[in-house]
Amino acid sequence: MNGSTTMLGKRVVVTGGGSGIGADMALAFAEAGADVVITGRRSAPLEVVATRHPAITYAVADVTQEDDMASLFDHLGEVDIVIANAGAAESAPLSRTELDQWQRMLEVNLTGTFLTLREGLKHLRDGGRLIAVASTAGLKGYAYVAPYCAAKHGVVGLVRALAQEVAGRDITVNALCPGFTETPLLEASIATIVAKTGQSAEQARAHLQSTNPSGRLVQPAEVTATALWLCGPHSGAINGQAISISGGEI
Ligand SMILES: NC(=O)c1ccc[n+]([C@@H]2O[C@H](COP(=O)([O-])OP(=O)(O)OC[C@H]3O[C@@H](n4cnc5c(N)ncnc54)[C@H](OP(=O)(O)O)[C@@H]3O)[C@@H](O)[C@H]2O)c1
Hints:
alpha/beta; Rossmann fold; 7-stranded parallel sheet; binds NADP nicotinamide-adenine-dinucleotide phosphate; Sc_DH/Rdtase_CS; KR_dom; SDR family oxidoreductase; NAD(P)-bd_dom_sf
């Protein structure tokens, strides 16, 4: 299989493509021959990623806004692969979790995935691929991130249900469930731990790494490789799955 042509002619949308896992996916799909559209709320990071490959373009769109997602896909027309990757993680003990924090986490991680998949599906060609970047937090609990865990569990449920609806069109939809992955989101989580516990950044990082049985952080490229595989020629029977990418954490 020639890695530079496996996605030739495919149109791919990656939400949250301006950084971290989404940026890595955008570059890899572009290098594999796809035309890639990345989205996010801030244009500056999107522009930086788009300058790294001529097959990447960008659009500013907030996944929590129904109008943004509808006009994004209406403007794009037919697509082959939609990756609902945008997300955010805020932390607090449940007893100190305000309603607006709960709602923010559900909106970006769960409602944002719903709107991305629903609007993407309207424009998806038969044989297309839908992917949601959930988390190991969609499969198990972690302390101090109950709204994030609830939202990511919801993403896994959404994917399992949708898989039953789309299988007849040779469309698949799967959830990727990375453990702690080396991205800006993780750096923000480490900064929060440092601010709230007085631990050093090294201690906080070591603690997060220790949750992975292999004792290291997951790399964005490992999540990307799974997405490429799901969009490859022999993955059509993988549908409705929540795939843990966590060194055996779960
Ligand atoms: N890093 C980890 O340890 C880890 C582990 C498991 C799962 N994940 C999941 O992986 C996904 C990607 O996260 P990451 O680690 O790569 O973090 P990241 O670098 O912070 O990326 C998140 C992206 O989502 C975008 N975004 C946030 N809110 C948005 C909104 N309302 N509308 C549109 N875009 C929005 C951000 O861009 P703007 O701010 O410009 O909008 C950003 O580019 C997330 O779903 C996250 O939950 C991460």
